[in-house]
Amino acid sequence: MTRPPRFPVPLDRLHGKAPGHSRKSATEVLRPQRPLQHAAEHAAKQAAGQGTPSGLGMDSAAVRERMVQRLRADGIRHEGVLQAFATVERHRFVDSALATQAYEDTSLPIGLSQTISKPSVVARMLALLFEGENARSNGHLGRVMEIGTGCGYQAALLALLARSVVSIERLQALHDKARTHLGERRQGDLRLVYGDGRLGHAPRAPYDSIVAAAGGEDLPTAWLDQLAVGGRLVAPMFDAARGGQGLVVVDRTAAGYVRHWQDAVHFVPLKSGAA
Ligand code: SAH
Q: pTM for the complete prediction?
């Protein structure tokens, strides 16, 4: 088991190569920053006009703020989650031709027949994770495992809300794309892993929060095994009673696993093996 990062971390570490960076070819380690507080500092910087100019012009923070207001109106109450959405520049994670749609509540193609989920669904999943026992008592998502890195957008949000994040992607081309996207803006302790996420990532287990961005017919046993006591898993999954996908939430307690269903959703399929 890896030792948890110690806070605070000197700011210059955030922009330099992390120790171990060159050791592993299939993973990238992005070093720790204080969760939540960093999102607030970054948002303040953006609001003060000190953020990086973007393809959307200097008003991308304002466009994001409108997205945040819509999320709030949709019932997302968690301030940390809203702050993370105000901070992460979603338009930088999609093809530049799609940048103008980046802050609409829509899923967008990210290549190889995969999509980035719409902001309201991502926000709902993050808010559900915050209702897990460990997350409630810690005030952050703790150790997180994400299955389905895709373009890296959700991983960037998670990095602001968690103590550490492992994000797994089975498509090499998307893993590489996410590494490029996230490499430019190193925030949090974020490790990108190329492989089959159905196997989880045992070296960093147990996880306080597990979130999947692709939906299967079942919950892989590795995810349940790697969930910490007090931890929560949120994943899209086929719901026979519904005849379609729903969001399943699993809490691990000292006595066992407690499962319940949430909203109907539509995610890309969870597949086996790496490609
Ligand atoms: N969170 C992502 C969403 C990506 S879409 C983002 O913010 O962009 C879901 C991703 O799950 C796809 O990239 C798909 O390749 C990946 N995926 C599907 N099955 C997987 C598996 N078994 N292991 C890892 N990734 C998987």
A: 0.83
